[in-house]
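queue> pop job 88
queue> type: inverse folding (structure -> sequence)
queue> payload:
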């Protein structure tokens, strides 16, 4: 399959590129400055901005699916994330791409209480503007006709962990759950190769026991 990955230079994006290439897919890796990302292996590395619909349409043409792992920390979150969701919605359709995996944030997903994790008592809120930006991006996706999945770690990333090849689909977000970047990439590529979830958020938990499901 041909897969376009926006935000390919970040940690989630790089591992998605690596996982896709390991499975034999042809990857177009979209970054702001290709000269800064020589590490992206055999991928075709191109310049583009996920928040610009014309860039999305141009770079997605001829692709079978799209992954968005982009984040612009310098931009206001309440502008960047809904803007990226809008540009993807506008740009992917004319490019003929319907399947979109949008890497998201656990804090905007329902916790055990049923309310968003960020609204549960005691949840750290020093990054609340960033969380609200992600929530606005998810809300924009809900109005899209694309076959989208908002795929988020069930809790947070285990930044030092490697690939186990295992994960689980969690019932709800859990602040204590951890998953490695490579295992999240496994989940993303599984969803592209064998779509099981459609037009919905998805909490992806850390490696399940050997007799667990993935």
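queue> result:
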């Amino acid at each position: 399959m041909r897969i376009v990955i926006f935000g390919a230079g970040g940690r989630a994006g790089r591992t998605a590129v690596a996982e896709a290439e390991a499975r034999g897919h042809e990857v177009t890796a979209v970054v702001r400055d290709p000269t800064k990302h020589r590490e992206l292996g055999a991928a075709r590395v191109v310049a583009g901005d996920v928040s610009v619909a014309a860039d999305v349409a141009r770079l997605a043409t001829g692709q079978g699916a799209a992954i968005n792992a982009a984040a612009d920390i310098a931009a206001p979150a309440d502008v960047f994330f809904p803007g990226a969701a809008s540009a993807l919605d506008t740009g992917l359709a004319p490019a003929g791409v319907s399947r979109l995996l949008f890497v998201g944030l656990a804090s905007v997903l329902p916790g055990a209480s049923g309310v968003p994790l960020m609204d549960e008592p005691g949840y750290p809120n020093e990054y609340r503007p960033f969380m609200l930006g992600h929530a606005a991006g998810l809300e924009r996706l809900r109005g899209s006709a694309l076959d989208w999945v908002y795929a988020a770690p069930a809790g947070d990333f285990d930044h030092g962990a490697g690939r186990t090849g295992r994960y689980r689909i969690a019932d709800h977000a859990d602040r204590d759950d951890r998953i490695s970047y490579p295992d999240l990439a496994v989940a993303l590529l599984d969803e592209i190769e064998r779509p099981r979830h459609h037009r919905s958020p998805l909490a992806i938990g850390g490696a399940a026991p050997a007799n667990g499901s993935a």
